[in-house]
Write a structure and sequence with these properties.
InterPro entries: ArsR-like_HTH, HTH_ArsR_DNA-bd_dom, HTH_HVO_0163_N, WH-like_DNA-bd_sf, WH_DNA-bd_sf. This protein has 180 residues and is an alpha+beta fold. 59% of the residues lie in helices and 13% in strands. It folds into 2 domains: 61 residues, Winged helix-like DNA-binding domain superfamily/Winged helix DNA-binding domain (Arc Repressor Mutant, subunit A), CATH 1.10.10.10; 109 residues, Arc Repressor Mutant, subunit A. β4 and β5 form a beta hairpin.
């Protein structure tokens, strides 16, 4: 393998689920160079590509489909915080999670949709149609959380999104308590 290709695979091993733009930034290479080497690594069955929610993520071949999708979602700070809250506190109501994490209810629901879709969180309806959240696979999810090391750019983007959602949610005139 070439020195550049070794750097690409090393970065993917260190940060499973890294997305293309972050790979370009961390390697300080031109996007075309990274694309070229990724293509070679995919053809050699050393790297797996997983497009999810508008980003293409990269993994070494040891990760199964559920693990790849879980890692992709966990690169988002708010999704990680939701899972850590549920793992720490157990079953919780969405309103309580939104309040504890200080996120707009709409932001929480956006992340929950992805977490439920990727089989990381379960939503259960109980009496009076109240929703309770729980982690679908606690041990596996905890293991995936330990593998994720988000970049500064990822964290800043997540925080900016939360800020904007909070501002927009405040303008809507409804309260989180009304939506529980």
């Amino acid at each position: 393998m070439t020195d550049t290709r070794d750097k690409v695979i090393s970065q993917i091993r260190q940060r499973p689920g890294i997305h293309f733009n972050e790979l370009v930034r961390t390697l300080d290479l031109a996007p075309g160079q990274v694309q070229y080497h990724l293509k070679k690594l995919r053809r050699a069955a050393v790297v797996v590509e997983e497009p999810l929610y508008g980003k293409t993520h990269y993994y070494t071949t040891e990760y199964g489909a559920w693990e790849r999708r879980a890692l992709a979602v966990l690169h988002r700070e708010t999704a990680r915080e939701i899972l850590v809250h549920l793992l720490t506190n157990g079953r919780s109501r969405p309103g309580a999670v939104a309040e504890r994490l200080d996120v707009a209810r709409s932001t929480l629901e956006w992340h929950l949709d992805h977490l439920v879709e990727q089989d990381l969180v379960e939503k259960e309806r109980g009496q009076r149609n109240h929703v309770t959240l729980s982690v679908s696979h606690p041990e596996e999810t905890a293991r995936m959380l330990r593998l994720v090391n988000p970049s500064l750019a990822d964290r800043l983007l997540d925080r900016f999104t939360r800020l904007v959602d909070g501002l927009l949610d405040g303008e809507s005139g409804s309260t989180d308590a009304d939506q529980s």
